[in-house]
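Below: protein 1.
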Amino acid sequence: MKIEIPSIDDRTYRQILSEAVSRIRVHNPEWTNHSDADPGITVLQLFASMTESLLYRSNKIPERNRKKFLNLLGVELLGAVAARGIVSFQSPRGRPAAITVAPGIELLAGGRTFSTELGVDVLPVEAQIYLKGKLDPNVDTAALQTLYSQLYLDAVAAGETLLFYQTRLREHPRPGEAEVALDLGADTVDDQIWMALLARPGDDLDEVRRQIANRKLSVGVVPALAATGKRLASGLESESSVPRLTFERPKIEDQSEQPIVDSARYEGLEARLVTTGRAVVYEVSLPDVARLDTWRDLPPTDEGAASLPPSLEDDDVRDRVITWLRIRPASGQLDTRFGWLGVNAAPVIQRSDVPAETVGRGSGEPDQTFKLQKTPVFPESVELRVDDRRWTQVDDLHVAPGEADAERAEDAFVFRLDPGRGELTFGDGLHGARPALGATILARYAYGGGEAGNVGIGAIAAGPQVPAGMRVTNPVPTWSGADAESLEAGERRIPSWLKHRDRLVSEEDYEKITNETPGVRMGRVDVLPLYAPTMPGGRLEGAVTVLVIPATDRAHPDAPRPDAAFLEAGARAPVAQADPHHRSSTSGAQTTCRSG
């Protein structure tokens, strides 16, 4: 229910005057002339006009008061959110060598500046994603069964049904095109992604192997936007909406011994997750030169069969394959729809750094205010110095000690920041110190944020610090950029805040938030209040048990059963989304997540 701002008094001038005149007969019956010529009526008209003006001003609650009401309720306006994204570097020319790109370099998308959040070793390789895709429904599989049963006569048992696939190259969208999600469950026959690491055209395969051996390959993974399009109220991203992935490479002991189709082996590679959020980056540790290889010169009937990598028809691509990476989700029940996978990836954020800005000079007066030139400001990035002393940022100046408090004198050198307006406020001497007369105020900070940072594919294409000859691009649109919340939008959040504040209260709250868990396909959610399955009799005050069933389960299609990763994601959702600022238990309530 929407909270309407009450009207103190909505009477008009005519209504006030008419009401006053009607009372004359009750309180002063001898007053009989009620025309405009009567001096008493003139006084009442003046009174009615002044009263209407007063009521109008009373009903117009000033914006400052409205903000104060929000503060008293504890509802803070959300600041601007910086857009995030992922970029891929490529070194298309020159000697095949790894080039290190440092973190924090500036990249440009028109007039918007982005900054890399991690360093990356750009390896001289290309990556192509292949799938063992499902056949078109119109294909005559019966004829294929007959043909391939004859070809694989020695390997196919009597009555055994063969599973067919078509090698599909995963094409990424170009600028202006809509995202096409890769759904492992719906698009593949093996629930796997096959990444071919290729040498650049013209490079010597053995030289490239030597350059990338024992190096870290940065693999970027972005889920389909449709799977994680929900923005948390705080502007924070979920811990990770991408399922954990495993990376494996072909395990080949001797190329002279051709593998048996059904026993092709793979070896796991160490893959460290170095970022969280909607897009993630894995650092995959590549093996030494001897183990960077793939099966070659296979018989035509063996290529792509069983657990071998997909067969490739393009001879140029086949000759450039250094090795294959087999990529599989650690859990088959989490959402496995991807928008992009690629190498030499680094996360970026719309952010610009101001290394030094002279904000102004102190006047020695109480409550001095100054404004930074660029907004909105990242609060955690602000470093402020007044002359040679560093001052500390606080949320409330009124709790700061005064200048005369000798025991806490150091704690008096504080300031308050309004990140949206870039305004710096200092104390009055009694609560927080005052910058002295003539003192130089110097600030170092970063700024950025807003919807303008949500740019399309390929918009990030240059940067003054990008090494010469190297290319950079964003393969997917950037996301999460949002302008600062308006006062009206903050007021619209009051009803939901009054309903449950930072807690989950009703069964509807638990069910709604659990169903919105990023990266998970929920089939059914049931909420059992005051129930704890580990307690005798099951009843426990303050406990809430949430029963969840996945939408799909390949192992048990008729009766889906959640696995550990699915339960962990579901159990984390109520806490993370109800109170994104504090990832703690929900107001003392015990929340468990169980299968149905």
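Below: protein 2.
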Amino acid sequence: MAHPDAGKLPKQVINIRHYEEEFKSPSEPLAKVKFGTSGHRGRLGGGFCRLHAQAIAQAVARFHKEKGIEGPILVGGDTRLMAQRTARLCAEVLTANGIPVILADIPLPTPVFSSEIIAGTAIAALNGTASHNPPEDMGLKYNPPHGGPAGTETTSVIEKFANECLDDPKKIKKLSLRNPKAPPLLKTADIVRPYVDRLAKVVDLGAIRSSGLRIGIHPLGGASIPFYRCLMEAYDLKDLDIVDKTIDPTFGFIPLDHDGKIRMDPSSKYPMSPLLDLVKKGKYDFVGASDPDADRFGTATASAGLVNPNHALAILFDYLLTHRPEWPKDLKAGRTIGTTHLIDRIAAARNRQVEEVDVGFKYYVEGIRAGRYALAGEESAGLSVYRWTTEKDGILAVMLLAEVMAKTDRDLFDIYKELAAKHGEPAYRRLDIPADAAATARVKALKAAAFSGAKSLAGEAVTGVRDTDGIKLYMKDSWVLARASGTEPIVKLYGESFKGEAHLKALFAESAALFGLQGAGVHA
């Protein structure tokens, strides 16, 4: 059940001064550096502070030297509170270690860091962001020379080095950027137009321009604003509007999310409600949004309302296979384990393969670099495409979905319904189940061998089990996945059924018992 204030503007303004002080001198014990699917993040203060930023930068400097990685590191951040301060702290540490630095002079989207690495501007990147998390949170991402999120083999080393620095801050080298004796290693670069020009080679902006499609874009107060503006101006997209250019590190202009927190999530109807109202009233044919670091997307039309990310991925995969004739004919779909299997059915009908990976875009890096995917996507509203960035890109996603409507002259709702009628309409849901430490540990310990005797679930024969990231059971027309959260006391239970809502409900009930979540009060 949603919080009673969900969809309403926050009643209280975040105390910026308080969090600035917490960043400088935390009042709580420091959390250890721990990289998740894309970086280290936490609440400003004990979760993420000045020392965390400096320690991670020092660890990256040491990692580069030990691995013989040479070249400048692009350093920046998005529009969040302390993002630019974090970037400058990182630049000071890298410079003191003799590492060349390109310090961005504007907030940067996550996919732009990746794009610049691939283009050869930088060898790696440090990016101050906590994605779509509440404004009290902050974090730091590291992108190595391949441009994508760093893999576990890299982040485990950086974590170790960084935590040594937390224990002994004297190991951190620093050189103020205002010091006249600082070596001339810092540079700025024009990175808006180059990214936009590269995007124009992947998205048919001409089709969008000539279609007359009325497009409204909401950057949700994020780093994508100058990039959308450049798209409009450089490619004469007269029917594209940026509906809100507000930059406010408290994000107090964003309606509260389902749990009553400020969360700049473009795939949630609550923070997206102002944009949804505009398309509902007929001002626009299509609206899109990206989160503060622009690695996630959200889109809506008058008929579809807010487009479910799973639906968007299915639409785009099918569209790209028929509208990119110059692409290789053996390109696959990349799909995370929690993403809809409608993609699998579309792939089978078009004689294409699907590659399933664990949750986290880092698992796509090798395949994207090798040119294996037409589309690589995840149910949490992230995607990339053939010959594009090794990071998920919300700007790309929004513009590609606009292209779909421009080229087909059809609403996304109608396209999805046609796909569902042809391949089967899935009932899909993710439940976040409160779980204590014992339940979380129990789910983390589940192995495929323990389910060798599981013959059926909700009346369907079990055809396979995967235990690489949680535990997933496969049936002919359904699947279920249980994953323990790495940051919250919850177990995420995903399920999908092509046999309807009633079957999905049964699937959740039986799987919860099977996974030891009987007392969790699971309701579909």
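Residues 50-67 form the longest helix (18 residues).
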